[in-house]
């Protein structure tokens, strides 16, 4: 059964196949992943075969079929950031969150992923948390940044 929140998202969009991606984006934003029932609902609403909905949902890495953390952390490991310590930033984030590799924390507060370039290389090393960019980042700032987001996740829970 699809939740009322998904019904509301889908009813707010014209039932046309070109609204498939906007619908998935909105569901991803709200649920932090795409539950199977929502993919079926999207398929019905936009009259797009379920296989095509899955194809789109698995093609773009902004979508996830498994639950992701409340806050999305992307640490740049592209060349410009790498030479300025991007890997050490990633290692410190993982250590602070008790993760041995990229993924979601046990409490679903955070999901950590390395990325190849965030498009603002001059600010490296860079970490993006949700929509906010932290540039010229030093390892010593990471615990405080994460603590702020952890507090936000607890308030939202
Ligand atoms: S290499 Fe890090 S933002 Fe481009």
What does this structure look like?
The chain has 157 residues and is of the alpha+beta class. It folds into two domains: 4-59, no CATH class; 71-156, Glutaredoxin (3-Layer(aba) Sandwich). 45% of the residues lie in helices and 13% in strands. The chain contains seven helices and five strands. The chain has a five-stranded mixed β-sheet with strand order 2-3-1-4-5, with helices on one face. The longest helix is centred in the C-terminal third of the chain and has 15 residues, at 142-156. The two termini are 22 Å apart. The model has no long low-confidence stretch (mean pLDDT 92). Bound molecules: FE2/S2 (inorganic) cluster (FES). FE2/S2 (inorganic) cluster (FES) binds at residues 76, 78-81, 117-121, 124, 126.
Using the coordinates shown, work out and report the CATH topology of the largest domain: Glutaredoxin
Overall shape:
elongated
Q: Biggest sheet: strands, sense, closure?
A: 5 strands, mixed
pLDDT averaged over residues: 92
Low-confidence stretches: none
Listed once per kind, the bound small molecules are: FE2/S2 (inorganic) cluster
- CATH architecture label name of the largest domain: 3-Layer(aba) Sandwich
Q: H/E series, N to C?
A: HHHHEHHEEEEH
Class of the largest domain, according to the CATH hierarchy? Alpha Beta
Name of the CATH homologous superfamily of the largest domain: Glutaredoxin
Strand order of the biggest β-sheet: 2-3-1-4-5
- State the helicity in percent bands: 40-55%
Determine Rg (CA atoms, Å).
Answer: 17 Å
């Amino acid at each position: 059964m699809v939740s009322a929140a998904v019904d509301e998202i889908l009813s707010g969009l014209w039932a046309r196949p070109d609204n498939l991606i906007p619908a998935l984006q909105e569901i991803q934003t709200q649920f932090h992943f795409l539950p199977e029932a929502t993919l079926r609902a999207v398929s019905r609403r936009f009259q797009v075969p379920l296989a095509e909905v899955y194809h789109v949902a698995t093609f773009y890495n902004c979508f996830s079929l498994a639950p992701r953390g409340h806050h999305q952390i992307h640490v740049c490991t592209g060349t410009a950031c790498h030479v300025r310590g991007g890997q050490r930033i990633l290692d410190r984030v993982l250590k602070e969150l008790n993760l041995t590799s990229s993924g979601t924390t046990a409490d679903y507060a955070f999901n950590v992923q390395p990325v190849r370039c965030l498009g603002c290389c001059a600010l490296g090393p860079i970490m993006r948390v949700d929509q906010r960019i932290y540039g010229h980042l030093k390892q010593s700032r990471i615990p405080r940044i994460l603590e702020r987001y952890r507090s936000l996740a607890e308030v939202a829970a």
